[in-house]
Design goal:
By secondary structure, the protein is an all-alpha fold. The chain is built from five helices and no strands. The protein is globular.
Length: about 110
């Protein structure tokens, strides 16, 4: 007797499965945001202090601290990481057999 599955097999990209149009970019932003969150928590700064340090608003820092990088570009998140003393490195290489390219980020612990 074959059992009925009461779940769907995911594609491997949870954000795409949830309907995000730019899921790869959103995952990249999420990873960068988590790193910013960790660095700010480690410094023990207030949101107001963090906003001044990063050159943004307290409301934007609040969104980052809730790990919701709404309306922030990948480039701006990278700039925030620079301000927080982090080197950010990008690599561009041929996509191989895939039709389109891909985006990813690797975070190295200090």
């Amino acid at each position: 007797m074959k059992r009925k599955r009461d779940y769907e097999q995911g594609s491997g990209d949870v954000l795409a499965d949830l309907g995000f149009r730019n899921s790869t970019q959103e995952l990249l932003k999420a990873k960068l945001t988590v790193q910013i969150y960790k660095l700010l928590k480690k410094r023990g700064v207030t949101q107001k202090e963090a906003a001044k340090l990063l050159g943004t608003t307290q409301a934007q820092v609040s969104a980052l601290m809730r790990r919701r990088p709404v309306f922030v570009s990948v480039g701006r998140l990278m700039k925030f990481l620079n301000v927080l003393g982090q080197d950010v490195e990008g690599t561009v290489r041929p996509a191989g057999r895939r039709r389109g390219g891909d985006m990813s980020v690797i975070v190295q612990a200090a």
